[in-house]
From TrEMBL:
<feature type="region of interest" description="Disordered">
    <location>
        <begin position="173"/>
        <end position="207"/>
    </location>
</feature>
<feature type="compositionally biased region" description="Basic and acidic residues">
    <location>
        <begin position="1"/>
        <end position="15"/>
    </location>
</feature>
<protein>
    <submittedName>
        <fullName>Uncharacterized protein</fullName>
    </submittedName>
</protein>
<feature type="compositionally biased region" description="Low complexity">
    <location>
        <begin position="173"/>
        <end position="186"/>
    </location>
</feature>
<feature type="region of interest" description="Disordered">
    <location>
        <begin position="1"/>
        <end position="41"/>
    </location>
</feature>
Length: 284
């Protein structure tokens, strides 16, 4: 009974090979043959299958059956079916199609090695690309194409992202700096420095300050302060007696007298202020 079943199975396979218009043949194998179907093809049969899958785009039923005849002719591959070939052709990855289209001599399995080489030398010369192609046994034009595409992807990024606020700020700042550097600017005179204390890391001014410039700055400051005094100010308590007025003015009088005394002592000569700029004591 069991022998008759095996004979019918082989006869069914022969009928599938003779009818090219049928779809992928699916067979119910005995348990012993199911375990054999899960095993790998012999190396020669696997080579025939890989060559067929890689070089045949969307094979027809008749093309698959011809390949199946060649595979079954290899000892140990008699269990292989058209359904197996059909499944392999459907598993063809888009990356394989991309490699075949752009660089046919390269295989997707080489991409890891290529990325290692490109990281070691991000901008290889044509001679280096020739050496790589020779060692990997691929076409130099295909390898050069892969390198150029990888470099472009690294520049622009594989997935473009929306600009962030920080990136827009950086771009705006760079444009402003370029605009300022391209337009001629007048030289700004050095600002005067106050006397440098004894214990400090700040350097003394490299140039002596012009006294006229200092007087102009003081006059400007006085005018600015006078103009600011006319602006609306928050209400303050008004002295109701001469004693209260003198008490509130003591602080300002002390600071003014202290400043004038330092000018008379020559402490501000580096700023262009001398004793001649201060009225005599009998006029203050």
């Amino acid at each position: 009974m069991q022998s008759n079943f095996r004979w019918d199975r082989r006869d069914h396979h022969d009928q599938a090979l003779q009818s090219p218009d049928a779809g992928p043949s699916h067979h119910h194998l005995p348990n012993s043959n199911k375990s054999r179907s899960l095993s790998r093809l012999p190396p020669r049969a696997n080579e025939i299958l890989n060559d067929f899958v890689e070089n045949t785009d969307r094979p027809t039923k008749q093309q698959r059956l011809k390949c199946l005849e060649r595979i079954r002719a290899i000892p140990g591959a008699e269990w292989y079916t058209d359904a197996n070939i059909y499944a392999r052709t459907r598993q063809k990855k888009p990356k394989q199609e991309l490699f075949q289209l752009l660089y046919p001599s390269l295989q997707p399995e080489l991409e890891k090695k290529l990325r290692i080489l490109l990281r070691s030398d991000p901008n290889p010369t044509p001679r280096i690309v020739e050496i790589w192609a020779s060692r990997l046994m691929v076409d130099v034009v295909d390898l050069q194409t892969w390198v150029e595409i990888a470099q472009e992807r690294r520049k622009v990024g594989r997935h473009p992202t929306l600009p962030t606020f920080s990136s827009l700020y950086c771009v705006s700042r760079q444009q402003q700096q370029q605009k300022q550097s391209s337009s001629p600017q007048e030289e700004v005179p050095p600002r005067p420095h106050l006397p440098t204390p004894e214990h400090t890391a700040s350097p003394e001014p490299a140039q002596r300050v012009d006294p006229q410039h200092v007087r102009h700055m003081l006059a400007t400051s006085v005018n600015t302060a006078a103009a600011a005094s006319h602006l609306p100010q928050p209400p303050e308590s008004i002295p109701t007696s001469l004693t209260e007025f003198n008490k509130s003015f003591e602080f300002f009088e002390y600071n003014m007298n202290s400043f004038m005394q330092k000018v008379r002592n020559g402490e501000y000569e580096t700023l262009g202020l001398t004793a001649s700029d201060i009225p005599p004591l009998n006029q203050t």
